[in-house]
Every structure is written in C-alpha cells, then in structure tokens.
Amino acid sequence: MTKKLDRFLRERDVLEATSFSHATLWREIKRGRFPKPVNISAGRVGWRESAITDWQTNPNQWKSTEAA
User: Fold this and answer.
1) pLDDT digits over 1-50, tens only?
2) Distances (CA, A) of 12 to 3, 7, 49, 52
3) How far apart are CA 59 and CA 57, in angstroms?
4) Which of 1, 22, 30, 65 sits in a 20 to 30 Å window from 47, CA-based?
C-alpha cells in the first residue's frame, strides 16, 4: 500500500480555502481553534493539507492537539 505524501499549503491557499481574512486566520490559530502552521524553511511556513482538511470536516469541534 502506498502512503500519500501530505502537501503543504501557503497562507494564500489557506485563506482561499477557509474564506478567512489574514487577521481572522491568525486570531483563530492563537485561540487554538485552527491548525498552526509548520516551519518549511527559514522564514517560510505552511499548513499540512491534511490538517486543513480535518479542520474543514468539523470546524466547530476541532481542537488543537499542540501545546500552546
């Protein structure tokens, strides 16, 4: 069985997928109600596509599993 690699999404892709504004995106991350980005390289972050898909499945029940 082949495992599919997780794709990284840039902020503009996340904003388009969620219809959030930049401010709303970061406010929801700070409140633990949206997945945090991961460091891709120096000065670059992205979101795992699977994390965004999980959030989209049920955004009201999604909780951050990361320590704040």
Assistant:
1) 667 788 999 999 999 999 999 999 999 999 999 999 999 999 999 999 99
2) 27, 14, 13, 13
3) 6
4) 1
> The pTM is what?
0.82
Query: Which tokens belong to 18?
Result: 């969620």
| Amino acid residing at 38 | V
Give the single-character DSSP code of 61. T
Q: Which two tokens stand for residue 68?
A: 């704040």
Report the distance separating Cα 64 and Cα 31, nearest Å: 9
Amino acid at residue number 25: L
In the chain, the amino acid numbered 26 is: W
* Position 1, amino acid: M
